[in-house]
Amino acid sequence: MAVATSPKTTVATRHPKDSPYQLNPDQTLKASRALLQHVQAETKRLQEASSKKSLLAAETSESEEDVAGDGEAPIWLTLTTKQHIVDQTRLKPSKISVPHPLNTSPDLRICLITTDPQRAVKNVVADPAFPAELKSRITRIIGLTKLKARYKTFDQKRLLLSEHDIFLADDRIITRLPAVLGKVFYKGTSKRPIPVSIAKVQKDKKDKKETSKKSKKDDGSAPPISPAALAKEIEKAIAAVPVSLRPGTLVAVRVGLVSFKPEQLAENIAAVVQNLVEKHVVKGWRNVRGIHIKGQSSTAVPIWLADDLWTEADDIAAVAAEDEAVEDDQGQKRKRNPESAKGPQVGSRKKTKVEKGKDGKSAEHGLTEARKSKLAAQKARIFGEEV
Question: From the UniProt record, which GO molecular function terms apply (predicted)?
C-alpha cells in the first residue's frame, strides 16, 4: 500500500552550511506526520472491515490484529548500512533512552532473568527499600539454570512469552539467551530481553581481581547492586527501546506507537538515530546508506538517503580485485588474501607495499599497469563517463 506523500517531503535535503551527514528535523517531522496519518487511516479501515466481517470468514492474522488494535501498534525505524556490521561489541544487545517511552502502562508484567543463584536478586527485590509499585509489576524472577530446565519445549516457551509484557535480563548472560529461548522470542516478536546491569561494580583493584577469578567459574559471583540502584536500572530499561542487531546491513528498532503525536515520534527518531550511528554503525554516518520509518504493514517512508554508495572510493577497486585472481609481475596467478573476505569493517584494509624498481620509480606490489587500467575502466563505468 502506498503512502500519499511525495519524495520532496520525506527525503532529507542538503544544506550548504550544514553537514549532509545529519537528519533534517523538518523533513523528519513531515515524514512522521504523513506516516501516522496513513497508519491511523488504515487502522480505522481495518476496524470497520472487522466489524462487518461474516462469522464464517477466516480468522485474521496476528499482524492484522495488531494493526487493528487500540493504537499500540509499533512504528519501526530501519537503518541500512553500506558495509556489514560484524563486530561482536556492536552486535551485543543494548538499549536506547528515548524522550517518549513506549511502555507507559502501569499494569506491565515484568519477567527478570538473572544469573545463578537467583536468590540474591530476589532478596534485593524483596527488600523494603525497593519501590513497592515497581515490585508489584515484577511477576517473576528466574535464574538461567531454572529457565533451561522448566522451559524446554516450544509450547512452554510460548506460554512464558504470553504471561509477561517485558523481559529484562542480566547483561552478563544476555548473549546466551538466544540459544535458550529460541525463535519464539527472537523471531517476529517485540519481547526480546532487554539488558539490565545487576552486578555491583567493584571499585578496588583487589576486589576486581577476585571477582574476575570467581566470574570464570560462576557468572553470578558478583553481588547484586542496592535495591534503589536496581530499581533505577529497571525503570531505565522499561523507558528505553531495545536494540538487537544481526550481522548484516539492516538495523530495525521500534521508535514509537501509532498513538504518538508526530512531534513525539520525530523526537524519538532523532534520539535513536544518533545513538545507533555513534555506537553501532562502523565509520558512523559515512557508512549509513538510508534511514526509513514504517508501520506494521505500511510502505517504508525515507527520511535520509546517502548520495554515495561506498564509504570510500578505494572500496570499488578493492571489491573488484576480490572477485578475480591477481596476476603478479611474473604472470602467475595468485589467490586473493583470505583476510579480505572478512570485510573492511573488521579493520582498515592493509595498504599495498610499495617497492622501488631499477628505474627508481615506485610501483604497487602485485598489480601490473594492465591491471590498473582495467580497474580504472571499471570505476569509470560505475560512476559514469563524467568522472
Answer: RNA binding
The answer to whether the beta carbons of residues 243 and 96 sit under 8 Å apart is yes
CB 247 within 8 A of CB 86: yes
| Domain stops at, among 244, 273, 290 | 244
52's grid cell: 462487518
Q: Tens digit of pLDDT for each residue in 311-347?
A: 665 555 555 555 554 444 445 545 545 444 444 444 4
What CATH number is given to the structural domain containing 211?
3.40.50.790
Cα dist from 277 to 22, 243, 270, whole Å: 10, 12, 11
Statement: residue 249 has pLDDT above 60 = yes
Q: How many domains does the chain have?
A: 3
HSE, side-chain direction, 13 A CA sphere, residue 385: 0
Q: Please enumerate in sequence order all residues whose Cβ is within 8 A of that of 310, keeping only pairs 6 or more positions apart, or say none.
A: 82, 316
| Averaged pLDDT, 1-12 | 44
pTM score above 0.70 = no
Query: Domain span at residue 127?
Result: 102-244
